[in-house]
């Protein structure tokens, strides 16, 4: 498969680009909700609009009412989300939770997917149990209780967790904390007794929960996939999240670069446009190269995920690491090249820097993924 | 598709029958590579057998038309051949600036007579070519070249000096940029072809930090270059005074080639191999290797994407500059890491175990990657102006 978009994908990209630039723009969404100190951190109205566009159910099979598309298409939407810094539960709901629900029972799919497709529900994903992403270790326990399970433990960095109608929780049904086996995924509804949120605003104005699971009682049908055999599903959810975050990161990088290059063409210093200075030209050109390479790696990972290829997992880590580092470079260069104005809240470039920092941590940073690339390569 | 499958099985059988085992591993040093030419000698029988089998089949230039010495393969068939050759590790039967550089220019700009005359010679490895572009003082500012051809009616008298002329001391002919109009910077250069045995041509190898001398200084002292070698075989490519168009076209090819976009090996990770060879590396080096592998695997995807886009005309015309920049910087990093992982073994300049000091010589050689064919700084300048459309100069 060629690494550029097919005609259909190019059309989707054009649609998504236009939609996000108009409806998901910084002034209309990020600044708007931030300045009102919105407890959700995103707008449900936009989520509904995204449903009307068909975006929310992109990865949901047609038999479940979705569009049955793939990670390349989801990535197209995510890149535009990144470019406009659009606050949205798309990645956690439509990409990660949808990937988990793909293996859920008919009952669970019937309960959750229609709301997602209609833009009436949002989902979160609870994996991390500390300030760094270490999904190899799951300490949250799920003990059998009657016909169901009792979940106990804590989860961190549950993005938009307090606003979610359902949270996909990775818990341990057997074995030691760092065992590969013995992990099970659960669909935890927001009104489950014993579920608590300490919701905090993050640097990028998004909201994330420290989740407490204090003997949360669940029915047996809350299980997603096989009891004790959830590691494979979890890995799929993680890869989907990594590749999705990479696509959003490429969008953040692109948005920051566009803003910066525009600035270089307008700002005069010493009687010249600063874009004429070679020192800045070369750094901008280097940044362009890195973004193109990060995008190619991300597209490759999306295609491999869609083809269910064995190398998808390696490429997912390559994409996440490359996109994280590239977006980091883009925002640092962006703020620096903007000079003093780049430090003001009024200008958008700083918002890109904040979003990049949050996205860099989400689903593992570049160090985690480079280490994973090494381990998967056998060293 | 069935046809392609059949072509693949035929190709596999042909390679099995014709590619000697000795030719199924990388060349060991530059003297192990066959470059063809009037004075060419084969290093061994296997090299000769492999070259002759490919020459007779048109596989030195598989995608060129049959009438010009190629095998007339479609792009899909050529890809199958590349894949099948890569599968058994078969090395190229003939290395040649004629194939990489002049050939594409003649296919694009040449007259029918030139194509029949020169392309067949190139395909059969009969003439070894060198490229006369750079001049002392011009460097990446190629268009400032001063070598001058004075028009004498049916011939020019060429005077001047070229530098960094790869293998000029071993070449039979040169394709050379010569100023033929001093008044016009860009439209005053002619792309000439002439014999290195012509009176007044002399060369002097330049010894490099790698200890090798792949480059030469080349001097032209009242060299008489005819304007034609026969009916429909002009001695220049394209039009007189419009050689810059040809040069630019060729530079695109050269940059693509140096970038390694078409080489899967260039894009591959090295961490696993180097860690094993070094008997386990320390954690900080391992981290560097891991970050390198991330960048290398990502660049590999970029190479694939770039070639996909080139095939359908979707690539930005200045994108080869980006590939050249990123590919050569990556290659330099690769060799830095190979030196670090190799430790004291990689320092050995001349020992049997290190194949004559391949590691340090290659490491030093790669430093030229971001200089030759336009420096990284020139590439970044082109990206800034032509892709990002930044103002000035």
UniProtKB/TrEMBL annotation, chain A:
<dbReference type="InterPro" id="IPR009075">
    <property type="entry name" value="AcylCo_DH/oxidase_C"/>
</dbReference>
<feature type="domain" description="Acyl-CoA oxidase/dehydrogenase middle">
    <location>
        <begin position="138"/>
        <end position="201"/>
    </location>
</feature>
<dbReference type="Pfam" id="PF02771">
    <property type="entry name" value="Acyl-CoA_dh_N"/>
</dbReference>
<dbReference type="InterPro" id="IPR013786">
    <property type="entry name" value="AcylCoA_DH/ox_N"/>
</dbReference>
<dbReference type="GO" id="GO:0050660">
    <property type="term" value="F:flavin adenine dinucleotide binding"/>
</dbReference>
<dbReference type="InterPro" id="IPR037069">
    <property type="entry name" value="AcylCoA_DH/ox_N_sf"/>
</dbReference>
<dbReference type="Pfam" id="PF02770">
    <property type="entry name" value="Acyl-CoA_dh_M"/>
</dbReference>
<dbReference type="GO" id="GO:0003995">
    <property type="term" value="F:acyl-CoA dehydrogenase activity"/>
</dbReference>
<keyword id="KW-0274">FAD</keyword>
<dbReference type="InterPro" id="IPR009100">
    <property type="entry name" value="AcylCoA_DH/oxidase_NM_dom_sf"/>
</dbReference>
<dbReference type="Pfam" id="PF00441">
    <property type="entry name" value="Acyl-CoA_dh_1"/>
</dbReference>
<feature type="domain" description="Acyl-CoA dehydrogenase/oxidase N-terminal">
    <location>
        <begin position="6"/>
        <end position="120"/>
    </location>
</feature>
<keyword id="KW-0285">Flavoprotein</keyword>
<dbReference type="InterPro" id="IPR036250">
    <property type="entry name" value="AcylCo_DH-like_C"/>
</dbReference>
<feature type="domain" description="Acyl-CoA dehydrogenase/oxidase C-terminal">
    <location>
        <begin position="229"/>
        <end position="375"/>
    </location>
</feature>
<keyword id="KW-0560">Oxidoreductase</keyword>
<comment type="similarity">
    <text>Belongs to the acyl-CoA dehydrogenase family.</text>
</comment>
<dbReference type="InterPro" id="IPR006091">
    <property type="entry name" value="Acyl-CoA_Oxase/DH_mid-dom"/>
</dbReference>
<protein>
    <submittedName>
        <fullName>Acyl-CoA dehydrogenase</fullName>
    </submittedName>
</protein>
<dbReference type="InterPro" id="IPR046373">
    <property type="entry name" value="Acyl-CoA_Oxase/DH_mid-dom_sf"/>
</dbReference>
UniProtKB/TrEMBL annotation, chain B:
<dbReference type="Pfam" id="PF02770">
    <property type="entry name" value="Acyl-CoA_dh_M"/>
</dbReference>
<dbReference type="InterPro" id="IPR009100">
    <property type="entry name" value="AcylCoA_DH/oxidase_NM_dom_sf"/>
</dbReference>
<dbReference type="GO" id="GO:0016627">
    <property type="term" value="F:oxidoreductase activity, acting on the CH-CH group of donors"/>
</dbReference>
<dbReference type="InterPro" id="IPR006091">
    <property type="entry name" value="Acyl-CoA_Oxase/DH_mid-dom"/>
</dbReference>
<keyword id="KW-0274">FAD</keyword>
<feature type="domain" description="Acyl-CoA dehydrogenase/oxidase N-terminal">
    <location>
        <begin position="5"/>
        <end position="126"/>
    </location>
</feature>
<dbReference type="InterPro" id="IPR013786">
    <property type="entry name" value="AcylCoA_DH/ox_N"/>
</dbReference>
<feature type="domain" description="Acyl-CoA oxidase/dehydrogenase middle">
    <location>
        <begin position="130"/>
        <end position="223"/>
    </location>
</feature>
<dbReference type="InterPro" id="IPR046373">
    <property type="entry name" value="Acyl-CoA_Oxase/DH_mid-dom_sf"/>
</dbReference>
<dbReference type="GO" id="GO:0005886">
    <property type="term" value="C:plasma membrane"/>
</dbReference>
<dbReference type="InterPro" id="IPR036250">
    <property type="entry name" value="AcylCo_DH-like_C"/>
</dbReference>
<dbReference type="InterPro" id="IPR052161">
    <property type="entry name" value="Mycobact_Acyl-CoA_DH"/>
</dbReference>
<keyword id="KW-0285">Flavoprotein</keyword>
<protein>
    <submittedName>
        <fullName>Acyl-CoA dehydrogenase</fullName>
    </submittedName>
</protein>
<dbReference type="GO" id="GO:0050660">
    <property type="term" value="F:flavin adenine dinucleotide binding"/>
</dbReference>
<dbReference type="Pfam" id="PF02771">
    <property type="entry name" value="Acyl-CoA_dh_N"/>
</dbReference>
<feature type="domain" description="Acyl-CoA dehydrogenase/oxidase C-terminal">
    <location>
        <begin position="241"/>
        <end position="388"/>
    </location>
</feature>
<dbReference type="InterPro" id="IPR037069">
    <property type="entry name" value="AcylCoA_DH/ox_N_sf"/>
</dbReference>
<keyword id="KW-0560">Oxidoreductase</keyword>
<comment type="similarity">
    <text>Belongs to the acyl-CoA dehydrogenase family.</text>
</comment>
<dbReference type="Pfam" id="PF00441">
    <property type="entry name" value="Acyl-CoA_dh_1"/>
</dbReference>
<dbReference type="InterPro" id="IPR009075">
    <property type="entry name" value="AcylCo_DH/oxidase_C"/>
</dbReference>
